[in-house]
Amino acid sequence: MKPMGTQWTVGEVMCSSNSPITQQVLRCGHSAFRFGLEQGDLATSTGRSELFTLIARHRPKHLWYSPTCGPWSSWSQLNASRSLHHHQLYQQMRKDLQYQIALGIVLYRRQMETGNHFHWEQPQKSLMFQNPNLAEVHQHTQACQFDMCRAGSLVDPESQLPMKKGMTILTTFEPFSGDFMDLPATIGISIKL
């Protein structure tokens, strides 16, 4: 696949159809694309081929990867401890999603080979980041941690009080390695992407 036009700023992978990162980047006048379920099923070779074609065509400076977090989250750990049946259920769900870990490693390597940046998002305390296959990613990224009550304005729908939802981003982008909250609220305004 030959690259087309100028390099795009951000590519979001495994995101929702209204993901805020792409919205903000576009609002700032930069180029961005999303690849979520609407664009293709990444559990299939066809879906992965479509994603790799998009990445090769637009060569995003930043690739933001948000794989499924449910079976890896701290809530899943609590639910899995309820019984042997629940433990086996969550183990099977994690096994079924191993392709997402493999895909993340491939996307990380591709971004490193092209001199671009990679960001892998998961809730804090996610078991996904404890997977031994991620040693290479951990070695060359830094963990940026923040609470969604400060970044993202996550509030309780009834009380409207801020909710703590800890997030961890494994990133190759050095400005994220400092105090994340010192960065501008929207990516691309004051920091050069």
Tags for this model:
193 residues; 6 helices; six-stranded mixed sheet; single chain; alpha/beta
Shape label: globular
Strand composition percent:
15-25%
How many H/I helical runs?
A: 6
**Could you estimate the helical fraction of the residues in percent?**
25-40%
Mean pLDDT: 84
In the predicted model, the low-confidence regions spanning at least 5 consecutive residues are 179-193
Distance between the termini: 24 Å
Describe the secondary-structure layout:
Elements: E1 10-13, H1 20-27, E2 32-35, H2 45-58, E3 62-65, H3 74-80, H4 84-96, H5 98-113, E4 117-123, H6 135-139, E5 142-147, E6 166-171
Parallel strand pairs: 1-2, 1-3, 3-4
Antiparallel strand pairs: 4-6, 5-6
Helix pairs in contact: 3-4
What does this structure look like?
The chain is α/β, with parallel strands linked by helices and 193 residues long. The chain is built from six helices and six strands; from the N terminus they run E-H-E-H-E-H-H-H-E-H-E-E. The chain has a six-stranded mixed sheet with strand order 2-1-3-4-6-5, sandwiched between helices. Helix 3 crosses helix 4 (84-96). The longest helix has 16 residues, at 98-113. The two termini are 24 Å apart. 28% of the residues are buried. Mean pLDDT is 84; it is low at 179-193.
